[in-house]
Amino acid sequence: MLLNYLAVALRNLAQDRLYSAISLVGLAVGLCAATLAGVILRSELSYEHFMPGYENIYFAATVGSPAGRAPFYSPGAPSFVAGILKLGLPQARAVTRIVAADVHLRHAQVEAREKLYWADPNAFDLLRLPVIAGDAARALRSPDNIVLTRSIAEKYFGRVDVVGQPIRLDEAHEMTVAAVVEDLPFRGTTLETGIFASGLATYSALNQCDREAPVNASRGAVMLCGRTYVQVAPQTGLGLLQTAVDRVLASAFPKFPGMAMSVRLIPIDRVHLFEGLNPGIQARLAIIGAVALSILFASCVVFVNLSTARSIRRALEVGVRKACGASRAELILQFLGESVLQVGVAACLGLAMADFVLPYVDAFLNSGGELNLGHDPGLVIAVVVGVLVVGVLAGAYPAFVLSAFRPGTVLKGSVFPPGGSTFARQSLVVVQFAILIGLVLAASVIYRQCIYATREALRVDTDEVLLIRSTCKQALLNELRVVPGVRAADCSSQAFLDRTEFLNVRLRDGSPLAIDVAPTDFGVFSLYGVRPVAGILPADGFAQRPEHVVINETAARRFGFRSPSEAIGQPLPLAEGLKQLAETVQASAAAAAGNRIVAVVPDFSFDVAAQKIRPAVFLGAPPESYQLINVRLAGREIPETLVAIDRIGAAMGASKPIERFFLNEYIEGLYLTVLREAQAFGVFAAVALVLACLGLLGLSAATADTRTREIGIRKAMGAGTTDILRMLVWQFGTPILWASLLAWPLTGFLLLHWLDGFADHVELRPWPFLASSALALVIALLTVGAHATKIARARPVAALRYE
Amino acid sequence: MLKLEHICKSYRTSAVETAALDDLSLEVQRGEFLAIMGPSGCGKSTLLNILGLIDSPTSGSYWFMGEDVARCSEADLTVRRRAGVGFVFQNFNLIDNLSVAENVEVGLLYRRVRGGERRRRVAAALEMVDLAHRMRHMPNQLSGGQQQRVAVARALVSEPRIILADEPTGNLDSANGESVMDVLSRTTRSGTTLIMVTHSAVHARRAHRVVHMLDGRLVDSGEPDTDAA
Fold first, then answer.
1. What is the CA radius of gyration of chain B?
2. What is the distance of C-alpha A665 from the center of its chain?
3. ipTM for this model
4. CB burial string A83-117: b at 16+ within 10 A, e below
5. pLDDT, tens only, A720-739
6. How many CA atoms are closer than 13 Å to the CA of A742, on its beta-carbon side?
7. Can you give the pLDDT at residue B134?
8. Do A408 and B110 touch (CB under 8 A)?
């Protein structure tokens, strides 16, 4: 019996090669997408799972909540947090700290710079890395001990059994290898290195942390000391735990004006998924999952549509088998079995495709997904269950509907009320094209936002600007300014570029305010084409007039000036914070007291689309404190200009080549995630397009089959090729209109929500909606048009002899 | 063996109700060869389908080997069909993707006949219709007459007690038609009841009894007309 079913199933596949290819390839693409998404999501959700006991380990992140700004999270905690939690948190079983450092290691002739963690002696009680040699639990209890990974041991010693061997650190300290641990999994952990050295060493960064004061009251800052981990008893609820932490640390942090600080505990396997530390990660993963499911759904639509369309031809077989004694159950089993077999074949093809594509996807998304069926019973089970579920769902119509027909009815030939099944198939085509229209629309809007954010929204001229990381020496500036391809060069702080320095101040009316502080040479403004809206940018530098201050329009507004002009000549209206402001730029207290606003510039930022424009104060600083040289190039012979600049650096005695990058690259790097999303949506849209075309092609062929006799009759009655073509093509035009009505509101809503995440974004206009639907319509017409033309041109007698 | 009492069968669409059979009563004896004749659309095939348990009457009683099966469910009809009914259709209705042997074997699969026995009976059935040498061919490789003989073999292989043939020679030339009729007629010698719908008076002459239908009713029943050309 089963052999008979198998023979029928395989011969059906071979008989209708076009449909079989379309169904199987389409379904394989969907299964490939679902597999890739599943593997990547599983990888992202399995961080740190290689460490036994990870379920009870928490990471302490510091939360800063400045007035008027969104809270920010730091992947570290002040040194005092560990001690307070250890003594005061009842649920804590152990607490440990690790501090990262770049060091120089040498053994015999092998030397290199490596990253390591200086760790508390009990670090391996919490972070239980797999041990290859030695006793990791006791390894860090001696101050000169170091723990290496397998690959590091092989790099320096050529083998892994190196417990007791010496290795030199920073050419000053002889360390002893106390244990060797397994290499860290690629992309399966937030630990950056598996090399650990004992924090008991007096020269360790951890020891230095403990010696320094954690609070800088004058700057209103708290110094963070690496990472802090807390081990708790099993089954400890996070909510209660966090409440206890808040209570224990309530008075631990100093009170700064306009700034509240606290510690947030995060399960270690969720640290990299935490939005505060990795913005946008959850949305990215959700998008991967949602789009993969959409593609899988679209491919199932193709499969189901073609199966049901072709199943009409099986109706006669159903009648004959029933007349020969087949029960309904046996027919259901046959059809479901055929469907599961086809899905199984598609699954094998899809897995092969996923295996081939996964390395490229991992590289693109910077993920660590792995596909290894031989060692992954979970994946095997998921694939088997998926095949059964999809196979049963896809085969449900022929299995349950066809098998229910009475043999007498079927053998008469009067099987299906045409409206019922056609409506279902058309509905599925509508959904398929709605998915396509939605993806095309999303890709175009995301890409537009990317272009807008990296160009128009900046309001400064960022083209042909080179940034050099260097202290600002006058001699270097002078050399740069005379290079033929250089139009201007001026210095600024890093904060001028990334606005990461801010100060909590109090205004004269008592209200707190967080202001960006951006020390800079005032010549930088004209380099970027920024003209003041009020006042004049001073020509004198910091040395001559340290009291000169420039503010932006938002600052003028927030300081209470009725117009930018009113601010000119006025001091900064600060009741508190002036002293800290002066210290920021190493100005004297006198200069701070006598500060004057000399110009108000328009609001601008190099990250404006993601962050709202904040009040900013630009003031001069000693040139040696600047870390960036901004160079405006003339725009011609750029390669030669870059060579000349590199030579200047070498001539100035730099020990290594100067670090330089174009401002545009930096800005695009800020939006790399968004750009990747746009690219990903583009790829998904292309896949959805292929699936939609496959499905449409199959349906067109199936429809033409069932209407062959009708076409022959129409042609015999006088219909021309154009008439037949119009009839066949229009049939597939109406679903596009319905698909648009379905896709537009849903996609529009989701896109509006996404765009709201940006402080500055493109407007959502009607033309992308119309364009995406028009594109879908053109694609549909092109897809079915060729096949329909062939049918329409056939001689009527061939069609009438069909039956 | 088979007894129809006041059988009615109507087909209903949203707008129209068509009476295919109208108060028809008929008895068929074991081993009888009955021919049903009548103009197109008189309900011959509908009657045959009801007799063969692949359709159910709208009203009336149908005693099938002593049981009233007129209101049976499809599952119950399947069981009875499996137990003793074979079909031969005008359009052959062979399954395109199965070979000749596999087509003949279909009925035996649902009767749970084991592999060795199945192969023996398929070979015997094909031998009976003189097509054993075409066992591995596909239906589209056979002529119309050969396809109909395969269909006859399929009907015979399960050794049914009743064979229903709906215009078995309708799509065949005279030589092939005679050949098929020879095979069918032979089955009655072993006690198999044969009920055949036909337009051909020549083929109807082989029957023990001929009934005539008109507009869903029986209008005549008697021995075949031996003078018919």
1. 17
2. 18
3. 0.73
4. ebbeeebebbebbbbbbebebebebeeeeeebebb
5. 677 777 777 777 777 888 99
6. 18
7. 93
8. no
The residue behind tokens 């006669």 is A316
- Whether B49 sits inside 8 A of A408 (CB atoms) is yes
In total, the C-beta contacts within 8 angstroms joining chain A to chain B are 76
The token pair at B24 is 């028809």
- Positive or negative, the Cα torsion across B65, B68, B71, B76? negative
**Alpha helices in chain B, H assignment, sequence order:** 44-51, 74-84, 100-110, 115-128, 144-157, 174-187, 201-204
Q: Residue A802 above 50 pLDDT?
A: no
Written as six digits, the tokens of A133 are: 């040699």
CA distance A345 to A333: 18
The rounded radius of gyration (Å) of the Cα atoms in chain A is: 34
Is beta strand A196-198 parallel, antiparallel or unpaired with respect to A110-119? Answer: parallel
Four-point Cα dihedral A14, A16, A18, A23, nearest 10: -80
Q: Cβ contacts of residue B89 below 8 Å, gap of 6+?
A: A320, A411, B151, B166, B168
Amino acid A305 reads: N
Q: Do the Cβ atoms of A636 and A624 come closer than 8 Å?
A: no
Give the percent of chain A with pLDDT over 90.
29
User: If pLDDT is split at 50, 70 and 90, which confidence band does A220 have?
Assistant: low
- pLDDT tens digits, one per residue of B128-173: 898 999 999 999 899 888 999 999 999 999 889 999 998 988 888 8
In one letter, which amino acid is A529?
Answer: G
B5-43 pLDDT tens trace: 999 998 877 778 888 898 999 999 999 999 999 998 888
Per DSSP bridges, beta strands B59-64 and B67-68 are antiparallel
Q: What is the pTM for the complete model shown?
A: 0.70
Residue A48's nearest CA partner among A189, A187, A196, A195 is A189
Q: Tell me, what amino acid is at A45?
A: L
List pLDDT tens digits, range A83-117: 999 998 889 999 999 999 988 999 999 999 899 99
Q: Give the residue numbers in B contacting A (CB under 8 Å), as ranges.
A: 45-46, 49-50, 52, 54-56, 74-75, 78, 81-82, 87, 89, 93-98, 102, 105-107, 109-111, 154, 158
